[in-house]
Amino acid sequence: MSIRVIGAGLAGCEAAWQIAEAGIETELYEMKPVKFSPAHHNSNFAELICSNSLKAERVESAAGLLKEEMRRLGSLLMQCADSCRVPAGGALAVDRDAFSEAVTQKIGNHPHIHIHHEEIKEIPGDGITVIATGPLTADTLAAQISALCGGSLSFFDAAAPIVTAESLDMDKVFAASRYDKGGDDAYLNCPMNREEYERFYAALISAERAPVHDFDVADPKVYEGCMPVEVMGQRGQDTLRFGPLKPVGLRDPKTGHRPWAVVQLRREDKAGTLFNLVGFQTNLKFGEQKRVFGLIPGLENAEFVRYGVMHRNTFLNSPQVLHSDYSLKMNPNLFFAGQITGVEGYMESASSGMMAGINAVRRENNENTLTLPGTTMIGALSRYIAAGSETNFQPMGANFGVIPPIEPHIRDKKERYAAFSARALHELNEMMLANQLSQY
Questions:
Q1: pTM, to two decimals
Q2: Omega cis (within 30) before 408
Q3: Span 84-134, pLDDT tens digits
Q4: DSSP secondary structure string, 157-193?
Q5: Per-residue pLDDT averaged across 138-142, rounded?
Q6: H or E segment to which residue 305 belongs
Q7: What does the angle CA 68 – CA 386 – CA 181 come to, to the nearest 5 degrees?
Q8: Does residue 398 contact residue 92 with C-beta atoms inside 8 Å?
Q9: How many helices (DSSP H) and strands (DSSP E) are in the chain?
Q10: 228 SS3 class
Q11: Percent of the chain with pLDDT over 90
């Protein structure tokens, strides 16, 4: 009896650990150092690429809550991170080399984990497998996954920012669809007069952009088809007004007139707690996004749960193909984990690997798989990837916008977030007791 795990990044290592800790022989496949992706350089497992920060430590924050849930569930990566931490104020940051080395040693020394340094080019047709090959999945395997999932695989992530509904200024925003088609609940609209548009436009085209790696734009036709809003704007002052910001078919009920320009917000989740900025794929630095997009009427105090990104990112259209237990709808013995599922961030990826590993074990033992309560951060993220928008699915990191609200509404944000965290940890503990999930 054995389970395969493909990929020894953060998600793959967490999945392999959970499986091995259950006493099941684990065949872990990692193509490094035989072959490296364009972004990887270290032969160790769980390599941290962009940053050594694992985000906020406070349990009353979304990122802090996620990490605390992982600790309680017996996360290998949280053990290693806590042992390799470096001073970082309110964040948990690690010595990235020491962290990867610690994970590699733990995985390598586990008696039930058997490591194979080779590239997997075909999806195994038998047994239980967890695929955790990440956002730069090798082309051959990516093509196999795409074919298996009916083409529901993205190779380039051109995503618009996402904001919380409760942070919008509804005195300025109005709900309507163009020409009253599609219902008023589908879109929110941020109207601009000429002066507001010109101020926004000037800030947009002069804002600082994030660097782009060559492998992110290997196909110029892809980049052209997902043109950043700031690049489109540089083609002329009225280009956006005749493109994604066109006001045609809309009237501001406060004035009775058509605005000079309109930024539309499209519902991101069924509950209507999250909205994305339509047509705002962008490569601006995150701080610049907050500053520039904050000039849009109604978004002055917007809370961004995800900033816009443009880079190569292999990820599934998970609402079409995955269950919330991370298994494939058409093959329950095949699990996916990590950024390929549409979770975004180091610990988010690891948490999905943890749940995929736990559920692979349960599948092997003929037990019902588990999805954590939607009130927990891990459970909310797994539900998001299974029930998000099928037509406009965007990857998502930990944020309180994906957690069900507490009634009655708590106005103070700090108190509200503390209540979210307290409820999450209480319900996680209850579920762990009910399902005999162990803590370390």
A1: 0.77
A2: yes
A3: 988 777 889 888 889 999 999 999 999 999 999 999 999 998 999 999 998
A4: EEE--EEEGGGS-TTT-EE--GGG-S-TTSEEEEEE-
A5: 87
A6: strand 304-306
A7: 125
A8: no
A9: 13, 19
A10: coil
A11: 66
